[in-house]
Design a protein that fits this description.
The chain has 136 residues and is an all-alpha fold. The chain has one domain. The protein has five helices and no strands. The radius of gyration is 15 Å and the shape is elongated.
């Protein structure tokens, strides 16, 4: 049975790992990694919006600030997609995403873990994975 928070954390960690590689890369590899990061962040945001955020009120949380942050991150990602060779633009988008994901994990997930059943978690994990595939 899948755990939605573990599934999402793996996605957060993947972006952090890619960003580490991006910072160390040069030339065409750096541009390729920028495009991968942009695609991953866009798909991740869409998948969260379609899965876990839809149930946030059930956990006593509001997803509105998260969705607003996603809108801001998606705007930065669009700017980065238009300038994937501009390191400052890509870095701003990725570091904003990482700050957002760290906030989710530390401030919001404890409330979710307290109220989420294993079957609900598994169902949300499947929704997240399917939404991410659709968005990719």
């Amino acid at each position: 049975m899948s755990d939605v928070l573990a599934t999402i954390k793996a996605d957060h960690d993947n972006v952090k790992s890619l960003f580490g590689k991006y910072k160390a890369a040069t030339g065409t590899e750096k541009v390729t990694l920028a495009k991968t990061l942009i695609a991953e962040i866009k798909a991740h945001s869409a998948a969260e919006d379609a899965s876990i955020y839809a149930d946030y009120s059930k956990f006593g949380l509001s997803a509105s600030s998260n969705k607003q942050e996603h809108a801001e991150i998606n705007k930065m990602v669009a700017d980065a997609a238009a300038a994937s060779s501009n390191e400052a633009v890509v870095t701003k988008a990725v570091t904003t995403f990482i700050a957002h994901s760290d906030e989710e994990e530390s401030q919001q997930w404890p409330a979710i873990m307290a109220k989420l059943s294993a079957s609900e978690s598994s169902s949300l994990a499947a929704q997240f994975v399917n939404a991410k595939k659709s968005a990719a």
